[in-house]
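Form 7-S
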Amino acid sequence: MRYLTDRKRAEGKGAAHSGTEAHWYMTASAVALAFLVPTFLIVFGRALGQPLEGVVATFSRPFPAILTALVVVVGMRHFAKGATMMIEDYARGTARKGLVIFVHSLSYAVIACALYALAKLTMIGFVFELMPH
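Output:
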């Protein structure tokens, strides 16, 4: 006779068979965002209202650029996972599949656009540095 603990009997029995993994991902990303977002708001707030040269100078530095990329990527992945959980709870059939695809596509599109804009800002910063003053 094999002895199974309650945990062993419950493992893999959830609807998606990955509930613990999803829960820990959401918890870890929420904690990361709790530190990243206020720091990003301070950096963004200081750049807000500056002329183009000031904004480019701010986001051409490594810390603000990496912070911005982290906020966008972690935030959009957190959004996609959370929205997927809600959709799986309340939608059924083809609508469910379509909504999940839409949410993931939207999050990846936002990530791509934000990283492209950030790359453009940093490239403009390099051009400003090369120009004679």
